[in-house]
Design brief:
The chain is built from 12 helices and 14 strands. The protein is an alpha+beta fold. Helix 1 runs antiparallel to helix 2, helix 6 runs antiparallel to helix 7 and helix 9 runs antiparallel to helix 10.
Amino acid sequence: MKRLSLKIKLTVLYTFFMILVTCAALAILFSLSSREILSSTQSKLERRVQDSTDDIVLRDGDLKIDSDFYSVTQDVYLSLYDEDMYFLYGKVPYGFDSQPELADGQTRSITEGNTEWYVYDMSFRLAEDRTVYIRGITSVTDAEASFTVTLRFALILLPGLVIVTAFIGYRFTRRTLLPVKKITDTVRQIRADADLSRRIGITGGEKQENGKSGGKSEARRGKNPGNKRRRGHRDEIYTLADTFDGMLSELEEVFQREKQFTSDVSHELRTPVSVILAQCSACLTDETLSSVQREQIMLIQKKTQDMSEIISRLLFLSRADQGRQPLQKEYLNLSEITLMAAEEQRLLAEEDGRSVTIECCIEPELYAWADETFYIQMLVNLISNAVAYSKENGHITVSLKRSGSGIAGCVEDDGIGIAAEHLPHIWERFYRADASRTGREGESHSGLGLPMVKWIAEAHGGYVEAESSPGEGSRFLFGFPAEKENDIRRSGNDGTLFEKKLKNIYF
């Protein structure tokens, strides 16, 4: 029952109570009807006997019986007896063989075999010296049989009533919960593409207003004179959807302000940081500085350079969030660019005194449409991370090869690795799993490099993912489409199918 959908649960509940109410009503109705049938049969019998007196006339000492006395009206059989219970005229129903004593004004129930009869006797004085008895007989079993037919007919119709009730209940529940489904679908879409401009738009009139309109959708709804009238006829779920749309508008506005704030702050900080770097360079040219002063200025310069790098990355990600970070794609030889980036990082590692070996396993002549600057930046971030978190005498492998219709790459190290609980969060900005990944003393890592890598890969229609085991090392896998740009446009490939194909590649 827990696995059933809410629609099914409500339908079952609605159907159960409807059938329960229907069965209770039928039980009460049939119970009352059974009593009413018995009472009606008795009344009918008594009335027929009383009306039959008009058919008996005494003329010149002889009884004259009208032909209507012999007719079986309303299933009532009439018979005439004298005071000595001698049968004179009339009919006795087939199967009624007993001859009960006369009982004036009483209705008795007599059972003969499987049939139950009502017998009613009434005395009728024809003259002062002559009295006769009129007996009416009717079958209770026949009356109950007709009621049983009705009961069976109702029981036959009951399954059909269950089906109709369930169908109506399901349709009603489905229509009632339709806004909930739209809310769920909207939330899933927002989670999938991180697009807060989406709206639920559960009514035709508001769908256009509540579409991907950004923070201005609320203002447009406020200006719509018919919106207030429509809201007055909605239930709680539609009100919830409206509230959800309003919340999305507010969240979108907040995130937009946050993105703009990050962008503005990054712009404003670049100038003073540049001035600090310029002043540090100028001070270092002064030969009168002592060794302690020179060391302090060089430390300031190093930290300022780190700050400048963080500001550049923040500005990059801010522009990417706002869709203002264009790609300048060219048809590039990724094999050569990857080899050059790996060689550059190897030289930097040697200059830094790191005894780290970088090995390349690159298939030649791999071409793809890509932004050269961003692609190099992605490789630099991945390889520099691998160098920073490598062990002494560590080994790094940079791989690139063709896979189907795409190009797959990997940067693998045998360093300290990443704990499983931290792995899903490494793509988040400013996230640093300090407990599991601690670089060399004095190194600074802002936690912005991997988010940049993720954006660059996905902006090219590719993907990037990480695999790691603590103490054994990490592997960062990435992939790019290899089609020419006009082929991509013609096929409408957005990298989704390519991503699914490459995620099963292992180097």
